[in-house]
Amino acid sequence: LIALCRGVALFSAGRPHDAQVALDEADRLLRERCTGVAWERGSAASYQVWSEWIAGDLDAFRARLPTALREAEERDDLFLAANLRTSLGSTWWLLFDDDPARARSEADRAMSAWSRHEGFHLQHLFDAEARLLADLYEGDAESAYRRITSAWPAARAAMLFRVRQLRVFFTQLRALCAVSSGRLDEGERLARRLEAEDMPWAPGFAALTRAALLAARGDAPRAIRQFEAAAELLESAGLSAYAAAARLRRGELLGDAPATDAAKEWFKSRGVMRPRRAAAMLVPAVRSESGNQSSN
Known about the structure:
This protein is an all-alpha fold. Helices cover about 75% and strands about 0% of the residues. The protein starts with a helix and ends in a 17-residue tail after the last helix.
């Protein structure tokens, strides 16, 4: 339990790589030495998946989720199954199968088994997250924005955003949806909120939002510099997938095919089928003058 608490604390402090080490140790100890710890094992597996995704350790994420989901089903662990079929876990079917319909059906399956009592739980927020990520993957930023703004009041009333890492992550996600859907003034407000947060993820997320805003307003020279700065901040915070997405957008703005291909290769080498679609879940797409954007 000490290793589990350490892993959760490290993740909450914005240190996903360090959290992975502690959570792997917790998982080993819970399996080898403990009985009657289904909830603890479910918590460890949930945070392992989230830490791997946030850290950009997509090879580990790809390997872990199917096994964790099978084990959850074998012991009828609805808590873990819901966490894995929604939130960041749902991206497994997007990244590695290119199957948004499957991602949504897995979220449907998770929520059909969840509590039907009144109230808004963390899993309801995770369900909205899973669906809006599928929307962004498909290029439907308007639907993604509607989903996150519809869930926001209930999540806030449930005090979920009192948890710092949730507040920072979902503020970034709302900023992504706002800028992707053309709501640039809202994106500015959310960037300022991120800049005011005291967490390792926040500076990189804020810089990424600022870069996307500059790109959306047509200021390519400043956007290029800001994407470069964002990539450095994100990499230093251990958010490698976000850094790769920032480098991809920078390459697109520069018209630098080798730089763009190198960023795409970062995703492909980890089994991601469509890097640009994956990047759209992390940073708004850069549009050409014709308004078109490759979906590969």
